[in-house]
Amino acid sequence: MIRFENVGLRYDMGPEVLRDLTFEIRARSFQFLTGPSGAGKTSLLRMLFLALRPTRGTITVLGRDAATLKRTDLPAIRRRIGVVFQDFRLLDHMTTYENVALPLRVRGKDEASYRQDVIDLIRWVGLGDRLDAPPLVLSGGEKQRAAIARALIDQPDILLADEPTGNVDPPLARRLLRLFMELNRTGTAVVIATHDLALMEQVEARRLVLGDGRLDIYD
Ligand SMILES: Nc1ncnc2c1ncn2[C@@H]1O[C@H](COP(=O)(O)OP(=O)(O)O)[C@@H](O)[C@H]1O
Ligand SMILES: [Mg+2]
After folding, report:
1. Closest CA to ligand 1's atom 18
2. Main localization of the protein (predicted)?
3. Which of 85, 96, 128, 162 is most deeply buried (CB count within 10 A of its CB)?
4. pLDDT value at residue 169
5. pTM metric for this prediction
6. Which of ligand 1's atoms lies nearest the C-alpha of 36?
7. Distance 211 CA to ligand 1 centre (A)
8. Mutational pocket test of ligand 1: of 10, 32, 42, the residue with most ligand atoms within 8 Å of the beta carbon
9. In the 8-state DSSP scheme, what is residue 130?
10. Which tens digit of pLDDT belongs to each residue from 161-178?
């Protein structure tokens, strides 16, 4: 679904922070992206999401060379990739319901066509009693789940999550992991960037491990 070939990345005139990355994220796959802080996990996720261009190498997304995509092609491709940012990026003046519904509203969909889907998804992530609450009154774990619901509302083929358990206690981290696995069973490819070893020990899954700018893969 997404393929990297000899991808390298540097910021400005700095050293290459990622080099010679060659790997594939397959449809319906589940994997952790790991490595110490500063290893390049967030940078790699941003390239997967086409928010950051590599300085060398080739990225192929859904069969198309990312370098040749036109700006007008991007929204349709990004819609198939759900992203949960480390800092959530929820809008403070909107309720949980409005935040989760936003991607559909932006696309001009009629609210009647999605209202129940939004409510069902918010219940699925365990926020059924927080529908009308703004982010300011949500706990870190609740914001995390709202951000996950927003990433999923448009039924992406692939979900990218950046340190999704970074702000939650271990029981909730396990719950979130189960949520991601359930999502994966329904056919969505999942990439979880994390440096939480305890979390990764809970499931047998492919690991993409970043260190010294390079990637090792453990299938
Ligand atoms: N916008 C940026 N400009 C310059 N350097 C950056 C930028 N973002 C990240 N870096 C550098 O790239 C390296 C990888 O960072 P990052 O992708 O955030 O790693 P991780 O998510 O694994 O902690 C770090 O050395 C970081 O300082
Ligand atoms: Mg990071």
Report:
1. 42
2. membrane
3. 96
4. 86
5. 0.94
6. 22
7. 13
8. 42
9. G
10. 999 998 788 888 998 999
Probe residue for ligand 1, chosen from 16, 17, 44 as the CB with the greatest number of ligand atoms within 8 Å: 17
| pLDDT at residue number 168 | 85
- Residues 6 or more apart whose Cβ sits within 8 Å of residue 78: 49, 50
Residues of the chain predicted below pLDDT 50: none
Backbone φ, ψ for residue 39 (5° rounding):
-75, -20
User: Rg (Cα) of the chain, in Å, rounded?
Assistant: 17
What is the CA(85)–ligand 2 centre distance, in A?
A: 9
Q: Where are the domains of the chain?
A: 1-80+156-219, 91-155
What would the pLDDT profile of 35-57 be if each residue is shown by its tens digit? 999 999 999 999 999 999 999 99
- Could you tell me which CATH number the domain at 1-80+156-219 has? 3.40.50.300
Tell me how far the alpha carbon of residue 116 lies from the centroid of ligand 2, in angstroms.
Answer: 34
Give the separation between CA 54 and CA 58, rounded to whole angstroms. Answer: 8
**Could you tell me which of 115, 125, 120 has the C-alpha nearest to residue 179?**
125
Residues with CB under 6 A from ligand 1: 11, 17, 35, 37-43
Contact (CB, 8 A) for 24 and 188 = no
